[in-house]
Amino acid sequence: MQVTRIGGRRVLFVMATDHEYGPCLAERFVPVITGVGPIEAAIGTTQALAGMADLPDLVVSIGSAGSRRLPLGSIWQVASVSWRDMDATRIGVPKGVTPFADHRAELPLATPLDWPVARLSTGADIVGGDAYDAIDAELVDMETFAVLRACGRYGVPVMGLRGVSDGPGELEALGGWTAMLGVLDERLAVAVDRLGWEEDRK
Questions:
Q1: Rounded CA separation 29/195 (Å)
Q2: Which residue ranges make up each domain of the chain?
Q3: For the domain 4-201, what is the CATH code?
């Protein structure tokens, strides 16, 4: 792990697994690899930030996502994220809202790029089939909401960059997810480069 200087900012990239960390991204940064899912993402991000003498100016949650609405292989900047697992409706709390917490169900992310945006839903499950119908966000992942909440404790803003790896067909094996990761590596690298260009213009 190391902080990457982009323009005038110190940026920390966070990823779930090195499966998503291909050669193009490896030329640009060394990420925090948290592990898969909200719990691992929260722990990994918190540990990384707690161990830093100087906090980064920005954390980027970057990797793959599923979608039934957006094209396979497309890259999106995350406008907002929600937590689809949280359901305390039995005690009168709206779905997605954490009881007694000080935040809404859907939280905005930093969107510094001139790049298409989409809404994201984080959860502990790999979404497929009819489960997509119950999610109103365009993208699904397993980490970004947790990364955002961990960074919020340290006052560090978060942006999300996600590439669509699966969703149009049923995901039935590991290979159905990994098949697109090489393409996403190349395309996510373009978005990372754009972050540098746009910083330089400011």
A1: 13
A2: 4-201
A3: 3.40.50.1580
Q: Taking the model in full, what pTM does it have?
A: 0.89
Contact between 163 and 74 under an 8 Å Cβ cutoff? The reply is yes
pLDDT in tens, 151-172: 999 999 999 999 998 766 665 6
- HEC states along the chain? CCCEEECCEEEEEEECCHHHCCHHHHCCCCCEECCCCHHHHHHHHHHHHHCCCCCCCEEEEEEEEECCCCCCCCEEEEEEEEECCCCCHHHCCCCCCCCCCCCCCEEECCCCCCCCEEEEEECCCCCCHHHHHHCCCCEEECCHHHHHHHHHHHCCCEEEEEEEEECCCCCCCHHHHHCCHHHHHHHHHHHHHHHHHHHHHC
